[in-house]
Amino acid sequence: MLDRVTVASPYAVELSRMPVTTRVLPVAGSETHVWEYGECGSDAETRASAGTLVVVVHGYRGDHHGLEPVIAQLNHPGYRVVAPDLPGFGVSTPMRAVHDLDGYVEWLHEFVERVRAESPSARLVIVGHSFGSIVVAAALAGSPAGSGTPARPGLAVDDAVLINPIAAPALKGPRGVMTRVAIGYYRLGAAAPEKLGHVILSSPVMVRVISITMATTKNKALRRWIHDQHHRYFSAFANRTVVLDAFRASVSNDVSEYAGRITARTLLIAADKDDITPIAAQHRLRDSMSDARLVVLDDVGHLIHYERPIEAARAIDAFLEPSASAS
């Protein structure tokens, strides 16, 4: 029987110490719900005083909760950390555009422009996890002019951080077979009538299977909390169309497609047991970027943000140190 009792977060103490404010911003047709962490995000005056603005983009079928353990561990004086629910996920409503990669990139450009205007002198750092790493990479890279389409400039940031970046096509990863199984599952959800399709795609049993597959920790209490997080938030999507469009985007694109056009100083935080991207692909990704550093965490998989947030936050803090920026 699946757990239904709230499982306390192992990072609750650190989170409780951080001021958190929430609001809703209309962006690209989406009523985008936003959580802001730290002393510099409580009102217009403190937003304007922020020294560093960190915009966080979560992964597929997640919401802002996913990266809270990393946010809680950051050495955040002077930080304004902004974590939205992506359109169509969590409590954010869908956007006007199709929920494919282009749609999310356009949304991200507009969202960053909105929050950046409130902290005009702040250093801008953008963080993406998993599918969020693809969205961030595509936004940073921009796109050349095509037949009938104008060029899109890359998102201008000071620094970028990609956690569990999707560095190669998912179908070629260590568990390409599992990816194909997932594609079959989503196709079944798409082929069924609307209500039944939604039931299939939000099935608690399937969510537990996915959670068990991704978790690598042997710590029973931590595994139980991870499963609880997935059951609470993994099926918080607006409708079947949103979740299917975003899934197609997540398995049809990867960061390596955009790496050569990314000029921002970038930190890659990868895992040696990531079932989606082999570690060799992470090294190739680093080498293909103009200014990238790679930190590899041992004994963890695709859930760095849940299983190793302390190490991830330390890597980010070290990367954002003024001395590191100057080197």
TrEMBL record:
Keyword terms: Hydrolase
Would you say which domain of life the source belongs to?
Bacteria
Q: Which InterPro entries match?
A: AB_hydrolase_1, AB_hydrolase_fold, AB_hydrolase_sf, Epox_hydrolase-like, Hydrolase_4
Classification via SUPFAM superfamilies: alpha/beta-Hydrolases
A GO-annotated cellular component = membrane
Can you give the residue ranges of the Serine aminopeptidase S33 domain? 52-308
Kindly give the Pfam families that the UniProt entry links to this protein.
Hydrolase_4
What GO molecular-function term can you cite, just one? hydrolase activity
Q: Which PANTHER family match?
A: HYDROLASE, PUTATIVE (AFU_ORTHOLOGUE AFUA_2G14860)-RELATED (PTHR43798:SF33), MONOACYLGLYCEROL LIPASE (PTHR43798)
Q: What is this protein called?
A: Lysophospholipase, alpha-beta hydrolase superfamily
Record organism: Herbiconiux ginsengi
Q: What is the lineage of its organism?
A: Bacteria, Bacillati, Actinomycetota, Actinomycetes, Micrococcales
